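For practice. Any example?
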Amino acid sequence: MCPVGGRSENCLPPPSPWPLELLAPAADLNCGLAALDHGADAVYIGGPRFGARAAAGNSLADIERLVERAHAFGARVYVALNTLLSDAELAEAVELAHQCHRIGVDALIIQDMGLLEADLPPIALHASTQMDNRLPAKIRFLEEVGLSQVVLARELSLAEIGRIRAATTLPLEFFVHGSLCVSYSGRCYISELQAGRSANRGECAQYCRHRYTLHDRQGRVLARDRYLLSLKDLDLSAHLRALIDAGISSFKIEGRLKESNYVKNVTAHYRLALDRLLAADPALRRASSGQCRFSFTPNPEKSFHRGGTDYFLRGGRRTPGAIDSPKATGELLGRVVGAGKGFCTLDSAVAVNNGDGLCYFDWQQELVGMRVNRVEGRRIYLYQTAPPPAGTLLYRNLDTAFNRLLAASSGCRRLSLKLSLQQVGDALQLSLVDEEGIASETELAAPPAVARQPGSAAALAELAERQLRKCGGTIFTVGDVQLQLDARCHYPVALFNELRRQAFANHLAVRLHRHRPGPVERPANAFPWPVPTLSYRDNITNSSALAFFRRHGVVAIDPAGLEATSAADCALMTCRYCLRAQLQLCPGVRSLPGTDPGTDAPPLLLADRHEQYELRFDCRACRMTLHCLPPEGVSKG
């Protein structure tokens, strides 16, 4: 039997029944258009309300413009409607769903199951990662109640993805790049309880990026003033083939709060990586059309980047923490080999430019930022900043020359057409066929006029082809051109130009009609929820959600309650990331005094400037939870 993610000549996985989808984020219309232009097969964006990024809302008019551009390429637009809702908000959320359906949105990303009790339009629904989608039984349930795609938890390994793949026929979506939440999505309540800002309502206060001190019950400090819950950024670009073999078909880039240069760079990087896989394996299919050519070489390290991790994709204990700083370090340039008054000398031949932003970690592991004043060879002069000492590793987190290339990058994506022009009575008929095989025909009245000085057939053909190949301002590029014209006839240049303009507009209309999403029906059933009891972890905030779960077999509610704010001993975070593993204090890795590798490790205490928390360790499941400190420091771990 092949291992999950493995390939050999005698053991190839079956071809994916789903096309491969590169799914890019959009903070706004400009970012969405940039994502499509740089190769996205789909874009996800927040609507006017109820998206899990409260600071990234968009008008329906802007979303409609994005839908039109996406459908021109056969790409899709998903609107994030993935916050938890109150009873008072449900009606507005349902109306927003109908408005999205009317403007042609392809799917809604949802978290609140109360929406499935409402009168929704026949639009596809995707299960947000906020639903904590990591168990095969839960994914099977989501399929049975009518969801069309599932965004899996970021923490999954290839083997775990493979087990989910075996349990469902739904297309599976997985984050491959961007910022990581330290807690399982949907299972982080610290922002809500401590700051009144619910991460499940798009208002996360990012406690994971705070500075903490860690100590044990005896008061021994294990780590002081470090960013102990801050993670590196996900980068799975080297594992796309393994993800395909495990069953992933939608590759998601995080970043609905990122600016357009980030979206261009990272989307282009993954577009090229997926295109290489598509070219090498004819069994794979792409989810949209249009070929991209970039005027820059994509490099994710040149955009916001905390250092890359493959997280838990390969299983086992991992150390994905970025505990020295939550800020972007960018790309490693090299090591400082000398320093003088206002300058340092670098051992790297990488070009550094005036205005670049550099940084390094000082002897206290604090990140220090600098701006380049001028460069002379490998000597870098700095703006009013003491240079780092020799031996320091130097990073660049702002590449001014690269950012200028990104800012100027546009018109990267074109849809190839084959053209056929012929005379049909008193008209010229232009037939177009694109790379998807979609065809259109456009006729323009053109009574033939005999040329006063008849030329050659070649001259007429050259004139016609030259005008028909002009594609400026459109998404098209012209490949093969076939002409059937009478050389004795005369046609003005303006006629060919007008015919081309009408034909392109007509073909675009045909494509938009072809790619408008069809209705999606959801079954009405009572397929049982995997467990019979509800708790605060199920994130129920309205009566419709409660009715949904009761209809699907739930018979009891945890006495601790349905709300994290009132639940006894609520886990503020539930994490696969483990600080013991990160700091090499894991009993399963290194035996510690007073611990047994076969039992759960004792709790530790974590403190920021305002509060102290207790960390508990379920070593059998390799999981860590964060709690408010019990009264009088009595541990329940």
